[in-house]
Amino acid sequence: MMARHDASELAQRLGRQAETVCRHYLSTGHREGRYWLVGDVRNTPGRSMFVRLKGGDTGKGAAGKWTDAATGEHGDLLDVIRESCGLIDFKDVADEARTFLSMPQPEADRPHAGERKASAPTGSPEAARRLVGMSQPILGTVVEAYLRERAITALHGTGSLRFHPRCYYRPDEHSPTETWPAMIASVTDLAGRITGAHRTWLAPDGSDKAPIDTPRRAMGDLLGHAVRFGVPGDVMAAGEGIETVLSLRCVLPDMAVAAALSAAHLSAIQFPETLRRLYIARDNDPAGDGAMTTLIERANTAGIEAIVVSPRLGDFNEDLRTLGLESLRAAARVQIAPQDVARFMALAA
User: Fold this and answer.
1) Are 199 and 167 in contact (CB under 8 A)?
2) d(Cα 65, Cα 32) in Å, to the nearest integer?
3) How far is the CA of 209 from the CAs of 173, 183, 187, 204, 212, in angstroms?
4) CATH code given to domain 4-119
5) Residue 59 pLDDT more than 90?
6) Alpha carbon of 236 to those of 170, 232, 271, 274: distances in Å?
7) Which terminus of the chain has fewer CB atoms gathered within 10 Å of its CB, N or C?
8) Which stretches of the chain are DSSP H helices?
9) Is pTM beyond 0.70 here?
């Protein structure tokens, strides 16, 4: 693990070249006045994240500090390097920063004569694949305990979920790297290739998410892709959150579902060629309404019937935990097409 003073020194050096760093690692953004604007720390196009280009070396107004107004995430340019490159191990972040700054690597990290040091992955999808590969199945782990704590008991076909016992988490540039158990979800394209990963850091006993500022973070190429459960045919359901779609799957166990991970990504989700009817599992909030409208328009243009299914409370997991399985089943029964009730819905015990 990189020492705290090393991290601070690297962050300060990067801050002195903040615009150059942004042009390299946040290339889809642009400068406006004293800030660099981009979609998010993973270099998605947009304007919700802003990086301060001028300022002191330390403190609240330091150069290189950034905030994502859409998610509340914040950090420094070391975080930009980590997330935009999809790096997992903090040592890899430090190595990448030193390479960018043309600084020598620490003596202990230099290869001996005749040796070749393995290069760290620089592409976010590759880093995501590595993280998924380092993880293990969820059966008998705190991930299973976490999902069951949220009343999600239909865990068949959840191979896209994995467990990592010590996943790195760094709260901010002034804090040491922490490790927490985490649920790792593989994000895939329509061909099943892993393009990204989503991390949910958990409490050690799986009773809830970890008590940290941002217990959910994604990495890799997410736009249009999703965390998928089941193989879609002519019918599938899509929603924002993993727990949302898994809750719906508790009463529709034979329907393929996909979690796009955010409202913006839900509106852009790719459609399988075989799809003829799409159920949109909306969240009860303005972002969910906007995603629903866009997705309906895209589906209709593609000749796909779009049907919105709505929770009674904030989302389907809240319905499941608060109102119970039978209430969720009854609500879903009257919202989906009659032919799909017989085809996909589990009968009451």
Assistant:
1) yes
2) 15
3) 22, 10, 20, 9, 8
4) 3.90.580
5) no
6) 36, 6, 10, 10
7) C
8) 4-16, 18-25, 77-85, 90-100, 124-134, 142-149, 242-249, 263-267, 286-301, 316-323, 325-333, 338-344
9) no
Closest listed residue to residue 68, CA positions, set 216, 227, 185: 216
Domain 223-349 = CATH 3.40.1360.10 = yes
pLDDT tens digits, 307-349: 999 999 999 999 999 999 999 999 999 999 999 999 998 665 4
Cβ atoms 60, 50 nearer than 8 A? no
User: For residue 210, what are the CA distances in angstroms to 53, 83, 174, 316, 346?
Assistant: 32, 20, 19, 22, 33
Q: How far apart are CA 196 and CA 93, in angstroms?
A: 18
In 86-141, alpha helices (H): 90-100, 124-134
**What kind and span of H or E run contains 175?**
none
How many degrees, rounded to 5, is the angle at CA 16 between CA 15 and CA 18?
55
Q: Which amino acid is at 317?
A: N
Helix (H) or strand (E) holding 237: strand 235-239
* Backbone torsion region of residue 303, taken as left when φ is above 0, otherwise alpha when ψ lies between -120 and 50, otherwise beta: left
Place of tokens 């068949």: 156
- pLDDT (tens digit per residue) in 177-226: 788 999 999 999 999 999 999 999 999 999 999 999 999 999 889 999 99
Domain ranges in the chain are 4-119, 123-222, 223-349
Residue type at position 177? T
CA-angle at 92, arms to 1 and 225, nearest 5°: 120
**Cβ neighbour number for residue 322 with a 10 Å cutoff:** 13
Pick the CATH number of 123-222 from 3.20.20.70, 3.40.1550.10, 3.40.350.10, 3.90.980.10: 3.90.980.10
Instruction: Indicate the residue type of 178.
Output: E
Other beta carbons less than 10 A from residue 203's beta carbon? 18
Lookup: tokens for 255:
């329907």
Instruction: Give the amino acid at 60.
Output: K
Tens digits of per-residue pLDDT, 259-305? 999 988 999 999 999 999 999 999 888 877 888 899 999 999 999 99
Query: Would you say the CATH fold of 123-222 matches that of 4-119?
Result: no
